[in-house]
């Protein structure tokens, strides 16, 4: 047993165990416990405990003088698959994208369970045939050289690669859908804070990319390095998740907000749709030009409603007497911008007007007068909205 490998796997296992305990038992803020958010933390805790189990297996093999690469035959790809499943469930849950979970469970667990049963069944039969204990480490190492174990291993690797492709796509698509819904439902700081969720997607891609490289190379020297980097990424992942409960709770309404423009609406007619948030029913057909007029009248109001804090698409739709889907459709198709960009564009135009009317105002005062809660948000939005080729509000 080498000193470096012992230190690496002992430290990695201890850190993952600590992360699991933190995720399960420690509360970081004053928010009430949310069942969905707690479930997300449990997914990550189970993922950490799986890593602890693998580290214990590695240390046991090293203590017995065996190569820990024997685990690459089955235990490591199996744990990799479970990591993929649990961390993907955590990410899509954080981004309020939990549709088709049952199908995803079936797709991941059915082949994995069958292959595991075949592998374990073969091991039990191998032990009985040789008259040895199935708990013998030497017999387990010997079993992995048999044709049956090799077939199960190849099948498992195939399932893992397919699952990796599915999970990467699911996280990418879930992130894209989350950003789309975020920008079409919220405005201002809610969008800025909500975009912090994207960090966990970066951690996810980095973690599994490095794990896959380590998996393929199977090099003693690089193994410890990759393990240290992946442990740091997992710590960053956990810390990020633990600090995102306020963002998660503030964007809970995204769970029921749907953007299905082509199926719900067409460009000329808007059918009667029940608004789930306000229980408002639009009984008459409303043309796209009529909604455009409503929008123009709303943004031209003297009380400047777009300057309100934390304004939602549901608020504006309720004031106009239409549904969220109708308003979102017109903004995205007729005005070529999402709800957040529309509100921010109105606020930036207000800030330009304030500059013209009073040149003595400083930037912080202008930001406050135009509906922005802080200077950094105003600066970021101002640069984005005023860049060349930015879509304009069409109101004549």
Q: In CATH terms, what is the architecture of the largest domain?
A: Up-down Bundle
Helix content: 55-70%
Low-confidence stretches: 260-284
Radius of gyration: 27 Å
Helix/strand/pairing category: mainly alpha
- So what's the overall shape? elongated
Supply the CATH class of the largest domain: Mainly Alpha
Fourth-level CATH superfamily of the largest domain? Rhodopsin 7-helix transmembrane proteins
Structure in words:
It is elongated and about 90 Å long. The longest helix is centred in the middle third of the chain and has 39 residues, at about 145-185. The chain starts with a helix and ends in an 11-residue tail after the last helix. The chain contains 17 helices and no strands. The chain folds into 2 domains: about 5-255, Rhopdopsin 7-helix transmembrane proteins; about 260-385, Orthogonal Bundle (Arc Repressor Mutant, subunit A). About 70% of the residues lie in helices and about 0% in strands. It has helices at about 5-25, 35-65, 75-95, 100-130, 135-145, 145-185, 190-195, 200-215, 220-240, 245-250, 260-265, 290-300, 315-320, 325-335, 340-355, 365-370, 375-385. It has about 400 residues and is an all-alpha fold.
């Amino acid at each position: 047993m080498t000193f470096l490998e012992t230190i690496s796997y002992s430290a990695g296992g201890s850190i993952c165990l600590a992360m699991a305990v933190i995720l399960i038992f420690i509360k970081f803020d004053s928010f009430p416990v949310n069942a969905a958010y707690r479930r997300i933390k449990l997914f990550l805790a189970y993922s950490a405990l799986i890593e602890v189990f693998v580290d214990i297996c590695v240390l046991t093999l090293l203590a017995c003088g065996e190569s820990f690469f024997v685990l690459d035959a089955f235990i490591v790809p199996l744990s990799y698959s479970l990591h993929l499943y649990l961390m993907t469930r955590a990410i899509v849950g954080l981004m309020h994208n939990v549709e088709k979970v049952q199908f995803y469970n079936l797709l991941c667990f059915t082949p994995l369970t069958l292959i595991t049963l075949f592998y374990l069944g073969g091991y039990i039969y191998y032990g009985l045939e040789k008259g040895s204990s199935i708990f013998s480490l030497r017999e387990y190492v010997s079993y992995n050289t048999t044709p049956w174990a090799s077939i199960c291993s190849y099948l498992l690797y195939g399932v893992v690669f397919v699952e990796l492709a599915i999970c990467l796509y699911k996280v990418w698509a879930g992130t894209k859908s989350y950003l789309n819904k975020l920008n079409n439902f919220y405005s201002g700081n809610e969008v800025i804070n909500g975009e912090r969720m994207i960090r966990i997607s970066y951690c996810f891609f980095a973690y599994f990319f490095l794990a896959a490289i380590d998996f393929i190379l199977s090099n003693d020297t690089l193994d410890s390095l990759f393990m240290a980097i992946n442990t740091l990424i997992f710590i960053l992942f956990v810390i990020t998740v633990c600090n995102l409960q306020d963002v998660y709770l503030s964007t809970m309404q995204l769970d029921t907000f749907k953007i299905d423009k082509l199926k719900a609406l067409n460009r000329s007619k808007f059918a009667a749709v029940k608004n789930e948030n306000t229980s408002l029913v639009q009984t008459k057909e409303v043309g796209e030009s009529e909604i455009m007029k409503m929008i123009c009248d709303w943004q031209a109001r003297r009380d400047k409603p777009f300057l309100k804090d934390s304004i939602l698409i549901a608020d504006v739709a309720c004031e106009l007497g239409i549904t969220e889907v109708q308003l979102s459709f017109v903004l995205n198709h007729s005005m070529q911008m999402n709800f957040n960009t529309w509100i921010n564009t109105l606020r930036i135009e207000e800030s330009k007007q304030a500059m013209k009317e009073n040149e003595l105002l400083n930037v912080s005062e202008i930001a406050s007068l135009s509906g922005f809660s802080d200077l950094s948000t105003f600066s970021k939005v101002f640069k984005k909205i005023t860049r060349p080729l930015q879509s304009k509000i069409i109101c004549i």
